[in-house]
User: Which sequence fits this backbone?
């Protein structure tokens, strides 16, 4: 996925139910100057238009790289949403940037770059300390959701938990089935993904493969699950 549009994110069924809380003292909120407000507006406008040099100038002037939108989206992640990759690189290069910052529904920058298939930028995030594994939805879920087999394989190489369950029990393999991505499914299965793992609705990856019209893959996974059970004496 090259161009990020809102459905790329909403199609995952945005996780979490809590709102991002940012405590701002009343006196400070009441005393924000017009110039400060204008600077903040300029910041988001420059991100939206991928004006990397303008954002870099604001950062040098002391702008906070971790500031968030009124919807709780951190600047680094808003750059992904705006397809502003030069700005993304500038913000990521700032030593003050929190690479594990979360938005209002507990998503991280690495989840966004995994979702959009940005392997090199995902690698840059991890080099800065981004976490590969976490409770709930993971970067591996997000890579699988859009069929980015290369990103999934790389994450697995970094010990990403292949059968990690989301809050509703969805596995990365189930997400690959929703994306109808055979390549990603193969990467996950080769790494030990369990086709018979079920979510809270009682569905497994085999069910989802059939649901999305991939009976051939469903049959192959069903046989794999049976063979694994036999090998384990079950």
Assistant:
């Amino acid at each position: 996925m090259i161009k990020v549009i809102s459905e790329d994110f909403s199609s995952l069924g945005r996780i979490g139910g809590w709102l991002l809380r940012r405590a701002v003292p009343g006196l400070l909120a009441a005393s924000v100057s017009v110039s400060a407000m204008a600077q903040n507006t300029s910041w988001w406008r420059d991100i939206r238009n991928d004006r990397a040099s303008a954002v870099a100038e604001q950062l040098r002037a002391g702008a906070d790289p971790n500031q968030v939108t009124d919807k709780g989206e951190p600047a680094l992640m808003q750059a992904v949403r705006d397809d502003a990759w030069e700005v993304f690189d500038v913000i990521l290069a700032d030593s003050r940037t929190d690479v594990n910052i979360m938005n209002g529904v507990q998503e991280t920058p690495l989840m966004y770059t995994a979702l959009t298939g940005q392997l090199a930028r995902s690698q840059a995030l991890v080099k800065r300390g981004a976490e590969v594994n976490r409770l709930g939805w993971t970067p591996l879920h997000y890579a699988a959701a859009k069929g980015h087999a290369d990103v999934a394989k790389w994450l697995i190489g970094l010990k990403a938990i292949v059968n990690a369950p989301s809050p509703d029990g969805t596995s990365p393999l189930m997400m690959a089935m929703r994306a109808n991505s055979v390549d990603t499914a193969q990467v996950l299965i080769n790494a030990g993904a369990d086709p018979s793992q079920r979510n809270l609705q009682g569905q497994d990856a085999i069910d989802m493969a059939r649901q999305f019209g991939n009976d051939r893959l469903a049959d192959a996974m069903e046989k794999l699950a049976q063979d694994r059970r036999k090998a384990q004496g079950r």
